[in-house]
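Lab notebook, bench 4. The sequencing result for the construct came back, and we need a structural model before the next group meeting so we can plan mutations. Quick request posted to the team channel:

Model the 3D structure of this chain.
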Amino acid sequence: MNNLQIVGEKLYLQTRFTPQRLEEKSKHVEEFPSLLKLSTEILHRIFDYLDIETLLFSLRYVCKQFHELILLYNRFKFDFESISISRLRYICHLINPELVIELRLSNDNKTPSQIEYFLSVCDLHHFTRLRSLIVIQNAKHFFTNLFDYVLTSRSLSSFSIYYLTRIEKVSKDHYYHTLTGPSLNSISSIFQRSNIKKFKSNLKSYQLETILRPIQYSFRHLTIQHCTKQQYYLILRYSPHLRTICLGRIKMNDEGYHSEGESSFASSSDEEESENNELICHSLVSLKFQRYKGSIENLKEILLLTPMLKHLEIVGQTKVTEFVTNTSMLKEFIPNALDLLQSIGVFLVIHIEDDNFPLGMNLFQMNEKRCRFTYEFLKSPEKIFFYSVPIPKIDIHYEIDFDRTTICTLKKINQNIQLKNRIKSTQLCFTDNVPFNFSQIRQSNGYVFPNVTDLEFRLTEFWPYNRKEFVSIMFNLSCITKISLRGNSSVYTDQFISQMEKQLREIFKQTKNLSELDLYSDHLLIAFDVDKIYSIIPQHVKYIKFPAVGLEKMRNIVDQFENLWSMEFAWSEHRMHRDRANKCEGLINHLQMKKRNFRYQKSFFSLLIWFNYINSECSIISDSDD
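Done. Here's the predicted structure in token form:
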């Protein structure tokens, strides 16, 4: 992380909720005297690390100088994935579209119909300097406008499209997930006719068959969710300009990997394809696996196709038998076959099946000084975190467990903060084994996990009196944007509830950027009354997911939490078929009786409600029948 990014992140945390009242500006100006002495160019480079809401709704109100500097800024990145319609409207009218270089639009659960609204107030063709367009959606009817822009834009070099998941019912107790969005033929046309250099998507392997054509693509950077081995070969063959590939996972065996009704792209001549694959020698520079689950032998087979790799990252999981048996094979292969490799990053979750697994096994080490590796043995559940130093970027839910053994090639593992700085999502469970001697965990350089944004508490009957102090040392709570509370007990004592309420209230006070709250536990919602929950949760939280309990409590929740942008009631498996339709209908009728401005969407597992939306009347987005 460079110095400008550090300054930018500090500015973000300090000004995110800067008061907009004139009489309170002066004290905030005093916090940034040295910044105002910097040149406009340097300040604009610092602004590159701030989001649009921080720039326009916080930092712009600090002082007159910042107000003028922000209006002169010409590298705005519009991220509308989590924003209110009123703020979106304000931003679009305030900022000249020619000053925008990145645009992120979303029609997900928190921002329904946002893209349609954006296109109704903005003309995409006015964004003449746009470099990157990111679309998260599930609709087809408005994609024509986006499609035309991608094809005609001279500035656009990066295009990302993420399809939303829809749950469809197969039988009474069986469901499957499908991706919904524009036709794949439209996406394929973009590949053939545009100048896109970077493409990202969550398309699945059976959908790639429509897109992969025997033409040469101009991509230099490609990110996809997963593909088959044969499709990976085709990507390399038809994309000679590719320099980086990021894969969610790769399926080595094509059989059984296609959806019903889909045919295999490579079924016509397997022998011929196999011979051609042996001739592939691609000049790929960087290869990343985000969810690798294959064997090490298969990994060797993949890496042989790209002998010029300089950067390799492997994030995934495997079994301990596979890891112990074949790791030495990989250790010998990499230095010999990939002699240009400059860096390797690994993070593997290794599942232990043998109770007699030896903790003192030989460490995986490279002869060169390209990387070092660390083991962390977790006793419950039994697994190993195996990762390199420096650690790659990871997208996992890291379990903080103090009952673990660490073996490391580093001399002082406690001084290695690489892992702690990379972790964004954590799960913290309090048991009697948690070391509440703060001297054991306090770091001289700050928080233990300074960059966590998604924090999950596993609530047990054990609630220490000093939990708030412990959490404040572990995490920078001002960075937290989402908190989840999971309860695994059907009986909470009055003393436990009282202690938990008091300390949660103190923790929430420090979460200035908290916007999302997930209450997983039915028992937790039953133990607390709605008024008590409302009094604990900060007013800046805009989305809450509740378990669907009794209809009367659900009515109380929608009446009490009027400040929310949206809320979701989720049915657990044992409650899913228990008067779900009646509760949905009863809650919707209640909101209509209250004359609330809202939209809603029913699915098999949840009821989503959006408040104070564009239209002044109730409307339904989609409905899934039982």
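The two ends are 50 Å apart (CA to CA).
Will bring this to the meeting.
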